[in-house]
Please model this.
Amino acid sequence: MFDGVTRRLTDWATAQGASTVTSASETPPDGQASAQLTLLAILPFPPPRSQTRAPLRFRLRYLVTCAPSSTPAAEHLLGQLLVRAMQEPDFQVELGDPAPELWTALGWRPQAAFWLLVPVTVPLEQPHAPLAREHVLSVQSSGRVWRRGTVTDAQGQPVAGARVQLEGAPEPLYTNPAGEFELAARPEDTLHVAAVVGGQVQEVLAQLPGRETPWPVQVPPPEQTA
Model:
């Protein structure tokens, strides 16, 4: 996993003029300015918030020095690496003297150095999620929902053959022998119902009653004439 980071840092340091790139466990060649990048810590790096499965992320912390130490060529190379590292968008540079105990542990005498933090991201396979299924009768791009209704007279008896038409609809519907009808309507739609009751045509305007089913429409009795 770290091989990719090592190759990237090797190419990056070589582009700044390093003849070779080594670590604390390797001996740089004599007489050449060499970059030494020693991995000393793995630090947490929280992933960004995401609605999908977040990748694994962490930072690798390198101690960057140059050899032969305290030579003009090494100091020039270290300056080049520092400036370029501060310009890399995903690198983080930390400045400050490493603890004396670190130099002792590495077997080096104290020298100019800086810390380089390099992010590592490991994508994770996204779990397969089934496609959400929308009920064709309840979710429509037009905002309409299928509704069933019944047209009855004042005594609650079904009215067959009543004309049912939504406001603005091009064609009407007619109730079946049980007085039932079915259509797609929006909550704000107005329903026009015309039915023959007592030998007279009665008309009713009805609004969709929330999400109740069926959609009840009652036709009043005809007005009595003297």
DSSP finds three helices and twelve strands in the chain.
